[in-house]
Amino acid sequence: MRLSDLNEAQMLALAITNEEEDGRIFRDFAHEFRKNFPATAELFERMADEESGHRHRLIELYRKKFGEHIPLVRRQDVQGFMANRSSIGLLSTLRPEKAREQAALMEIDARRFYEAAARQSKDAAVRQLLGDLAQEEQKHEAVAGQITEQQQAQGEIDIERHVARKVFVLHYVQPGLAGLMDGSVSTLAPLFAAAFATASTAAAFKVGLAASVGAGISMGFAEALSDDGKISGRGTPTIRGAVCGLMTTVGGLGHTLPFLFRNFHLAMTVAMAVVVVELSIISLIRWRYMDTPFLSASFQVIVGGLLVFLAGWWIGAS
Questions:
Q1: Contact at 8 Å (CB) between 43 and 98?
Q2: What's the CA gap between 205 and 203, in Å, rounded?
Q3: Three state DSSP letters for 31-47
Q4: Which end of the chain is more exposed for a tag (fewer CB within 10 A), N or C?
Q5: Residue (of 78, 65, 49) closest to 9 by Cα position
Q6: Is the whole-model pTM more than 0.90?
Q7: Cα–Cα distance for residue pair 9/209, rounded to 1 Å
Q8: Going from the N-terminus, what domains does the chain have, and what CATH number goes with each?
Q9: 10-residue block means of pLDDT along the chain (318 residues)?
C-alpha cells in the first residue's frame, strides 16, 4: 500500500507499530552498550522512554476513535516507509557512534512520517496528535545532540572511544594479526623448501596453496575453540575464528601466488618482495594497535621471518 491509501485508523495503527518497534530497537541498543558504553546506553534508554510515551498517546486516541482492536499495519506493508530501519545489522558489531547515527536517521524518518500523515488526515484530533508528534520528534533530534554534547564535555564520549578502540583490537585486530603472522611466516618454510627442492613453480604453488588453506582452517578452529569470550571479553568465537582463519590464508597466499609464474627466478624474486611487504604490514599493525615501537616490531618480525625462510632454504637445498 501507499501512505495515501491509508485511512486514519490504519495510520494510527502504523504509528503505534512504529513506536513499539523503535522503542525496542533503542532498548536493544541500550542493553548492548550498557556494559562498555554507559553514556550511550543512557541516551538510548531515554529515547526508548520517549517512544513509549508516544505509543501510549497514540493507543489512547485510537481507543477513543476506533475501539479496542488495533489492526496490525507494519512498516513493510507501506511503500517507501522508513527504509533506514533496514540498515540495522547485528548489534554485537555495531559501534556506539554508528548507533547514534542510526538513531538520528530513525528520528528524522519518524518526523517525516508524522508530517505526511498529519497532512493527509481529515480528523481534527488525529491531525493534531500527529502534528504534535512530528514536532516532538524534531525536538528529540536536538535533545539527542545536546545530550551527546553534554557527555562529550564531561569526558564520557572520550572514554567510550577508548573502550571502542580496545574492543575493536580484542575482537578483530588481535585474531587478525595472529592469523596474518602465522600465514605469512609459518608457510615460508614449506613453500621455499618445495621451491628449492624441485625448482618447479607449479610444485611450489601447490605446496604453498595447501599450506595456506590448511593453516587457515587450523588457526580458525584454534582461535574459535580457545576462548568463548565471556570472561576475557574478546568477542564472539565464531567471528574471531573467521577473522583469524581468513587472515592466515591471506598471509600464506600472498607469497604463494607469485609461483603462478612459470619463470622460477621471477617467481622467487616476486615472492621474496611480497614477503617483505607482508612483514612490513605486520610491523605497522603492531605499531598502530599494539603500541609497539615500529623499529622493535620490525626487528622482531623480520628476524622470525628470516629464520623460517632460512630453515626452508636449508631443508629444500639439502
A1: no
A2: 5
A3: HHHCCCCHHHHHHHHHH
A4: C
A5: 65
A6: no
A7: 63
A8: 3-154 (1.20.1260.10), 160-317 (no CATH)
A9: 83 89 88 80 86 91 90 78 51 67 79 86 87 79 60 60 69 85 82 85 91 90 78 73 91 90 90 85 82 67 67 66
